[in-house]
Amino acid sequence: MDESQAVWHSQTETPEVHHELQKKLSVANQLECSICYNTYDNVFKTPKLLECTHTFCLECLSRLMTFTPADKDGNGGGKHLSCPFCRHPTVLPQNGPPALATSHEVLCKLPNHQQQEEPVWLEGEKLCYKSFNQDAGSGAPDKLHQNLLLKCLFDKMFDAVKIQQVYWFNNGV
């Protein structure tokens, strides 16, 4: 019985090809949060900078803040965040993670419609934002009212997205 051996050869990359691949991978990694691996956006997944210059999405930093143990004065974990990578502490602004600096370096690499940061705020442990919903048929706001969507990520685990429709009537009703 004649036994033949298969020999496999791998093609080695030229330094130029390797550099281009590394550059593409680097840009791709910058566009996703290294905690949740979701792509950044301009609402709940806004890229936020810690003092150590590591960047994570707003939602992950809010979760991290929620589960940070109380300090020795008994205050709930809301004054400092420890970077998940380097453990460098970041002092949180009074308005929490939404008030941290946004990484405009990352934001400008997102699609054009996501390069303008949306206003997001904390209500207790909820991350919230408002967006005006255009009338689906005409593409223009309704003359009697504008449909205002209030979207909140809620619960300590941020398990769900709550969408509450509120109508803002132009006549003050």
From TrEMBL:
The keyword Zinc applies. InterPro entries: RING_finger_E3_ubiq-ligases, Znf-RING_euk, Znf_RING, Znf_RING/FYVE/PHD, Znf_RING_CS. GO terms for molecular function: ubiquitin protein ligase activity; zinc ion binding. It comes from the Eukaryota. Signal peptide: none annotated. Residues 33-87 form the RING-type domain. Keywords: Metal-binding, Zinc, Zinc-finger. SUPFAM superfamilies: RING/U-box. SMART domains: RING. Gene3D superfamilies: Zinc/RING finger domain, C3HC4 (zinc finger). One of its GO terms (biological process) is protein ubiquitination. Pfam families: zf-RING_UBOX. The keyword Kinase does not apply. This is Ring finger protein 223. It comes from Oryzias melastigma (Marine medaka). The lineage of its organism: Eukaryota, Metazoa, Chordata, Craniata, Vertebrata.
